[in-house]
Amino acid sequence: MADADDPVEFFYRGQGSKRLLKFIGEGDGFIAPQDLEDCESEFQPGVQMFLGGNTICGPPPPSIYSVVQLAVAAMYESNSTSLEIPLLAWDKSKLIGDAVFDETILDDAEQLTGKDSVQDVLKRFRNRNSPEIQACTEMFGNREFTEFGFFMNNAMGAFTYGTQVGSVESRNAPQPAKCPRTQMSPVIGIKDGEVSFASGGTDYLGTCTSLLGALTSPEGVQSRTPLLFKKGDGLHSLNSDKSLLAGY
Asked: Listed GO molecular functions (predicted)?
């Protein structure tokens, strides 16, 4: 990575992973314990919330799981399955980035699970018939996705110039981070000290729907995102068995 022309592209767009896997594959090689002697593991505390009799938990930033959790909490409290709620909660994803570049991102992610954030989303949802002004032009940019789930905006929002160091906007500075984040949002539900369900993927709305269904009516879940629910002797898939449960 240190020798790469663009370390950010090398890491977040998966160039490094592809080259490593290609090197291992062509050489019929494998990674042994001694190859990792100079590596250190980094552990981050998970994001969790008590909801519907379950403790639901998932990964911290750069995953947008905390936004998923906010959306589901708002849907659960309002007893609504309207997809307008997670779309309103999505606005908070601008606060998510890689904590390697800004440690305060973890604090903001934790606040997203609080009652104030939930009530803010619900207030906007209930006032959704109020006049709104939106501008949809090319100058506002487009999200650029990678096959690994990371995404960044190619104009405003993710490439803000002239900001003060330490400000929220500085996370979106052109270099080095470009506000990287991932929609990969694995989630585990725990009830009475045991795993009750697991879900996850890169489909934001699908993950929200799957998680809400697990908390309210697991047998009737209709979502592209796979959901494993505890039944008797283990975890069973409640939707497409062709789907992959994605997480990290």
From this structure: glutathione hydrolase activity
